[in-house]
Amino acid sequence: MGAGGPPGPAPDGGWGWVVLLGCFVVTGFSYAFPKAVSVYFKALMRDFGVGYSDTAWISSIMLAMLYGTGPVSSILVNQFGCRPVMLAGGLLASSGMVLASFTTRLVELYLTAGVLTGLGMALNFQPSLIMLGLYFDRRRPLANGLAAAGSPVFLSALSPLGQILLEHFGWRGGFLLMGGLLLNCCTCGAVMRPLAGSPRGRGGAGPEEEAREMLPLEQGKKKLADGPGGQRRRQKKQLLDFSVFTDQGFVVYAIAKFILVLGLFVPTIMLVNYAKDAGVPDADAAFLLSVIGFVDIVARPACGALAGLAKVRPHVTYLFSLAMLANGLTDLCSARARSYGALVGFCVAFGLSYGMVGALQFEVLMATVGAQRFPSAIGLVLLVEAVAVLIGPPSAGHLVDTLKNYELIFYLAGSEVLLAALFLSVATYCCLRKPRGPRRAPAPPTEAGDPGEVEYPSDPGPPSTVTAPQEAENHMVSEVKQTEEEEDEEEEGETERKPVLGGSAETLGKGGF
Q1: How far apart are CA 318 and CA 358, in angstroms?
Q2: Phi/psi of residue 399, each to 5°?
Q3: Per-residue pLDDT for 263 more than 80?
Q4: CA 419, CA 352: separation in Å to the nearest integer?
Q5: What's the mean pLDDT in 413-437?
Q6: Helices 406-431/316-333 angle, 10° precision
Q7: How confident is the model at residue 314 (pLDDT cuts 50, 70, 90)?
């Protein structure tokens, strides 16, 4: 991503706003596209003669690739840099949808629209988060809130667009044109200019960083070693730190996220076909996803700003639990909704709680494991979520095919989200209230009469009785403590400036959904 040394200070503006725009687009495609594809499910069921559970696997595979390939994306970024990985990801995502338009079997759809497109979006999503974290520090909550709004904005646009393309060109033409839209991810990757501590200042990277960005790791190291920054100290870091599983807070969070993802995506994937079966016209049914998107646009940045308040931030885990509780109750209360007005009301409430969940998920993880272990933690959590994504929506689709009843699906999804909220809040309150690490106590003040104290000349008391060897020993101890404090401050500074793989340190407002 940049130089061999630690990255320079985040510019908090300048070219960072262009990077933010690219992250906005990538986030929109990554999280809205698997949901918007559900518009084509009815046509796919008719042409391939399959059930809803079979077509639901397309969205599930997309999401599973987006989550499950997180560690792979991190490794590729470390090897080649953000920009080349994003360019390759955009080409993969586009080619997957283009090839899907020529498929004749459902398995081919799984491999093209599911695997290729999902992998391409994964290779765009994580590098964009890394670059956003590099370019913003002081304004990072605002940047993440704005970037997170890409998901609802694109959801509100792609769903009706998909319905229009389906009516005019069929699902094959729609897939082909959607593949063309995904080429915009390549444009977003092209603007991800590497940022590092170069002598050119805070706005961009020098020639060494540009060379490192387009060369493999070993070649980049060799080239940088010949440049001005080649003498900087380099530290070898682990790609994945599995020691996070020894942290009780991380284990609780991972279990809660697994339960949450089992039911969180089900309503949005089922909603369009549920409305069509209830007699709602196709265009109006597709518009329901846009309603969720409109509300989500406001909810994510607002919730990110709320979580940043000084009085709320220490209790952000409980705010996250409250958001999940609201989402689960919305599913349960709306299971019997059949009229279009009731469905619109469900979409408003669901969009509000859904946006809050998406805005807070990475903030809670960051507060749980800290900045140093966040890159490994996010990759491992995404792996856990990938398993849940492969279980939740396909199982719901199978139940719909078997029971012909959407009401039970909403009850089941709402119960799973409620269980995740209760588990996280209760476990946090009962087990994780104490600080994880002992805080270093300040040294007790010494009194004037303590033995071994060195008297200062300004003190009116008697002359010091400290012997020369004692004074030399005290001086050596003082120097050692001062050296340790300077090393701790330097290490903390490097930790705050290092790029975060898989999410910026404040991904905070960043919606993972």
Answers
A1: 15
A2: -65, -35
A3: yes
A4: 19
A5: 83
A6: 160
A7: confident
Q: 10 Å Cβ neighbour count for 349?
A: 18
Cα distance between residue 371 and residue 190, in whole Å: 28
Structure tokens at 8: 């320079």
The per-residue pLDDT for 484 is 54
Say which residues have a Cβ less than 8 Å from residue 253's Cβ, sequence separation at least 6: 364, 365, 368, 381, 424
Per DSSP, helices labelled H in 404-467 are 406-431
SS3 sequence of 130-156: HHHHHHCCCCHHHHHHHHHCHHHHHHH
Closest to 511 (Cα-Cα) out of 219, 145, 237: 145
Task: Pull the structure tokens for residue 29.
Answer: 């495609």
The residue to which tokens 């007005």 are assigned: 341
CB atoms within 10 A of CB 81: 25
DSSP 478-495: HHHHHHHHHHHHHHHHHH
pLDDT tier, 75 (very low <50, low <70, confident <90, very high otherwise): confident
Non-local (6+) Cβ contacts of 377 within 8 A are 241, 244, 250, 365, 368, 369
Assess contact for 36 and 47: CB atoms under 8 A.
no
* Calpha distance 254→361 (Å, rounded): 11
Residues 6+ away with beta carbon under 8 Å from 497: 6, 7, 8, 9, 10
- Tell me, rounded to whole angstroms, the distance of Cα 367 from its chain centroid: 14
Cβ-contact 37, 60 below 8 angstroms: no
Collapsing DSSP to helix, strand or coil, 501 comes out as: coil
Contact 264, 330 (CB under 8 A): no
Is 126 in contact with 77 (CB distance < 8 Å)? yes
Rounded Cα–Cα distance for residues 289 and 347 (Å): 8
Say how many residues make up the chain. Answer: 513
| Residue 407 exposure: Cα atoms within 13 Å on the Cβ side | 6
CB-neighbour burial class of residue 235 (10 A; exposed 0-12, middle 13-18, buried 19+): exposed
Residue 466 is classified by DSSP as -
Which pLDDT does position 144 carry in this prediction?
Answer: 72
